[in-house]
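HUMAN: Can I see a protein plus its fold?

ASSISTANT:
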Amino acid sequence: MRPGHPAQRRAAAAAGGSRRRADEPAAASPGSSARAPRGSGDAARAPRGSGDAARAPRGSGDAGEFVAGRNPVVESLRAGVPAVALYVGARVQHDERISEAIKLAAGRGVAVLEAGAAELDRLTGGALHQGLALRVRPYDYAHPDDLLARAADAGQLPLIVALDAITDPRNLGAVARSAAAFGAHGVVVPSRRGAGVTAGAWKASAGALARIPVARAANLARALASYRDAGVFVAGLDAAGDTPVRDLDLATAPLALVIGSEGRGLSRIVAQACDVLVRIPIAARTESLNAGVAAGIALYEVAAVRSR
């Protein structure tokens, strides 16, 4: 019954009341939905390796996902990534990494389960798991207003980082790490067309995501407008900005710093929602900075201005 196998396609065709070839498109009858793609199988039409029923796409942050491989699993457990279960291969040869993973998981109350090679292949989507996989718990996002409340509770000027069209979860993790280091009160990401808190983000954050909240906004431009109404100035980081981030006077005021993607920068709507556009001066105009690196530099400069 492996998806895509000739026998599976024949069985699926027979179950649907049709004997035509499984790779021929089905004619949709009026009022009915189109037939799922070839090899999609039955049961929720989940992609191969998607795990349990109705799992959301990778990167959405709506469902748990898996860290695969001995070193990544051990590093994730060391970093305190919230996990549901540790899966250990039934017939794998144990080494110090597997022993440490089991010890760390047991110490944190994470279930340790034995799984066969086929089951591990299915759970991890065919990734190189080396007989070890960690299921990460779905992330509990905050509301954008919660970040202002967090600053108020601490008696501090709000400092919030917003990400516009950052699609790599590793960049989100790196930004969260810098935000925690330089005193930000949270990170805001859009619900769509943006990275969510996944296993990759947890790993890149080196545990910082356990110390700083991530809020999700249905509409980022609207969330920034709401911040402005609450007295927070919005500064967008843009290569074409008029003001060097080191000279940003608004750094001493309540501030939301918006980071765009490396290739496209800030979207037009988000740029219009900003009070000012600032830039990081670099030696060569042909060079660009990774979003995570740019966020770290900008947050350092804001922290330096505030300290003065």
The two ends are 66 Å apart (CA to CA).
